[in-house]
Amino acid sequence: MIRHAILAAALAIAPAANAESPSRVIAAGGSVAEIIHALGAADRLIARDTTSTYPAEVASLPDIGYVRALSAENLVAMDPDMIIAEHDAGPPEVLDVLTRTGIPLVMVPQALDPGGVTAKIAAVAEALDMPEAGQALQASVAAKLDEARATGAALPQAPRVMFILSMQGGRLLVGGAGSSAEAMITLAGGVNAVTGLDGYKPLTDEAAIAAAPDLILMMDRGGDHEVSVSDVTNHPALRLTPAGSAGRVVMMDGLYLLGFGPRTGDAALDLTAQFQRLNGQRDG
Questions:
Q1: Is the pLDDT of residue 18 over 60?
Q2: How does pLDDT run across 139-192, given as a tens digit for each residue?
Q3: Of 106, 157, 198, 214, which shows the fewest CB atoms inside 10 Å?
């Protein structure tokens, strides 16, 4: 009842957007919180979502829940003067309510390539009224992304890489065309071994064997989603692939790998280094 009363009051007042630089900001999305920190505006953050795990100090902020399952009542009760969210934040009805409260809601663009990363930084910097810091961060991030792209392009042979999002119950959920996983694999100089699927979709055992990945890429996750290298190499289909039979499994932090934020160039370089080791094994 209290939450509904707060929301009703906010909708009734529906204040105009504050022309001053926001000082009470909620970040809905891991890369958003990361960009805000990289811009030097961490002191403006009052809350973050569950995907915001970097830098470590964001963990001390109140948690608003999962970026795609937000609660308007919770957000309004925190009295923010701006909410900055990933492109896929939601659900839509919550975004609609937030818009009607008059609280400035900034949706950053999706990023699946170097240009998208710098555009995302520009959007956050503009929202925070930090043009100079934004330009400086864009320049440094763009330089690292250029380095990553050049390093990946210089690989003598592009490995076939399969990104597995989940293996729950032995069922494979993989990254197909247009996914952030495919975008990272491409940036690092690899080729997505999964074809004929868009986004993140289930993959049959037969299709996994036919994909014949040289390397399997996964997020380093805990809890119910935790997977070990032996889980991969013992999977009835994956063990019949070049990657599974040789134990070529790479696990990286999810936000670092797929966040497409300020550290994306570093993540791509780290992944390219794994590809280089694979090429070295082939040459040997």
A1: no
A2: 999 999 999 999 999 999 999 999 999 999 999 999 999 999 999 999 999 999
A3: 198
Residue 109 contacts by C-beta under 8 Å, 6 or more apart in sequence?
87, 116, 119, 120, 123
Q: CB-side exposure of 229: number of CA atoms within 13 Å?
A: 10
Under 8 Å CB-to-CB from 252, ≥6 apart: which residues? 217, 218, 219, 220, 267, 270, 271
Helix then strand then coil, in percent of the chain rounded to 5, is 50, 15, 35
- 203 DSSP β-pair partners: 172
Q: Read off the tokens for 58.
A: 């964001």
For residue 46, with 0-12 CB atoms within 10 Å meaning exposed, 13-18 middle and 19 or more buried, which class applies?
A: middle
Q: Any idea of the CA torsion for 263, 264, 270, 274, to the nearest 10 degrees?
A: 160
Q: CA 240, CA 247: separation in Å to the nearest integer? A: 11
Superfamily the domain 156-283 falls into: Nitrogenase molybdenum iron protein domain (3.40.50.1980)
The count of residues in the chain is 284
Do residues 91 and 70 make contact, with C-beta atoms less than 8 angstroms apart? yes
User: Could you give the count of Cα atoms lying within 13 Å of 199 in the half-sphere of its Cβ?
Assistant: 1
Three-class DSSP labels, 148-200: HHHHHHCCCCCCEEEEEEECHHHCEEEECECCHHHHHHHHCCCEECCCCCECE
